[in-house]
Amino acid sequence: MLVLLRLISLVLVVSAIMLLGADIVTSLENGGKVMVRSLDQVAMLFSPAGITAFHAWCAAHLPGFLSHGIVSLMGLWGWAVTGVPGIILAFLFGRRTADVSEH
Q1: In the chain, where are the structural domains located?
Q2: In 3-state terms, what secondary structure has residue 30?
Q3: Among residues 37, 30, 34, 27, which one has the least CA distance to residue 82?
Q4: What is the pTM of this model?
Q5: C-alpha triplet 3, 8, 18: angle, nearest 5°
Q6: In 3D, which of 79, 94, 97, 76 has the Cα closest to residue 7?
Q7: Alpha-helix runs per DSSP H in the chain
Q8: pLDDT tens sequence across 26-59
Q9: Largest Cα–Cα distance of the chain, in whole Å?
Q10: Closest among 73, 68, 64 to 43, alpha carbons compared
């Protein structure tokens, strides 16, 4: 179980670094104007119709507070949404000193 959580942590942190790098390159391409993609914008790159359908489904099937919470979460920076949980998981389930064998 610890190995799985470490792997999830690694995937989240690597995706956050990739999203941050993409935002830096986009900012450089726009003459230094800071451009940061939200999670919604990142999802739109993969499937615009899918994310629109997801928002419509949330509005129709979830209570108002939960639907608004998901919309707010999707509006946050993509690298922050993946990086913060990844770092927290890395600290919680990372390698302990007792786990490392002495040679």
Answers
A1: 1-37+78-94, 39-76
A2: coil
A3: 37
A4: 0.83
A5: 135
A6: 94
A7: 2-29, 39-46, 48-61, 64-74, 78-93
A8: 999 999 999 999 999 999 999 999 999 999 999 9
A9: 59
A10: 73
Tokens 């790098």 sit on residue: 21
C-alpha 64/C-alpha 67 separation (Å) is 5
Residue 3: helix, strand or coil by DSSP? Answer: helix
Which among 44, 51, 42, 47 is positioned nearest to 81, based on CA atoms? 42
Per-residue pLDDT at 102: 57
Signed CA dihedral, 86, 92, 96, 98: sign only: negative
For 7, 30, 91, 94, the CA distances from 88, given in Å and listed in that order, are 13, 32, 5, 10
